[in-house]
Structure formats: C-alpha cells, structure tokens
Amino acid sequence: MDTTHTEALTGMLTVLGMFVLLVLPSAIGIVRERRIDRQLREAEQENRRAEPAEDQKSSSKPTEPSTATWYAEGRRSKKLVSSWTP
Questions:
Q1: Of 39, 42, 22, 20, whose CA–CA distance to 31 is shortest?
Q2: Phi and psi (nearest 5°) for 27?
C-alpha cells in the first residue's frame, strides 16, 4: 500500500466519521421518540383495560371563548378591515 492509498483511506475514514457524527443525534432522537410512542400506546391500552368505557356527558350549554381568544379574534377582524384601502 503506497502513500496515495493511505491518504485515500484516511480521507474516506474521516468523511465516514464526520457523517456518523452528523447522523448520530438524529438516530438517537428517532429511537427515543419511538420508545416514548410505544410507552404511550402501552399506557393507553392499560388505561382502556382498567376503566370501562363511559359515555361522555355533553352539556347543552354552548361554551364561551376565553378572553384571549375573544381579544385575538377582535384584533384579527379589525386588522382585516383597516388594512383594506380603496
């Protein structure tokens, strides 16, 4: 093996190492999210088995939006009206 082959091998290993360093955090994150999703599914299944299904009672009274929602809706409608110019 001469110098050219050694340099090529060193360069290739360097690029491969950098690639692994860039991909490793993403791979760890994906594995972690799948584990959490699996745990959530298992907990949901256990919860369904533990409690019998009950019908949810809905009130006939309509819900009122919160103050923040009301304020945001008002601001949006004013912005739309005031931004129009003939």
A1: 39
A2: -65, -40
DSSP-derived 3-state class of residue 64: coil
Which runs of consecutive H residues, i.e. helices, occur in the chain? 3-50, 67-82
pLDDT for residue 32: 96
Q: What is the pLDDT of residues 19-55, one digit of tens each?
A: 999 999 999 999 999 999 999 999 999 888 887 655 5
Look at the block and give the residue holding tokens 């409608």: 77
Task: List Cα–Cα distances, 18 to 6, 23, 25, 30, in angstroms.
Answer: 18, 9, 12, 19
Question: Using alpha carbons only, what angle is made at residue 36 by residues 19 and 54, rounded to the nearest 5 degrees?
Answer: 155
Residue count (the chain): 86
Q: Taking a C-beta distance cutoff of 8 angstroms, is the pair 65, 73 a contact?
A: yes
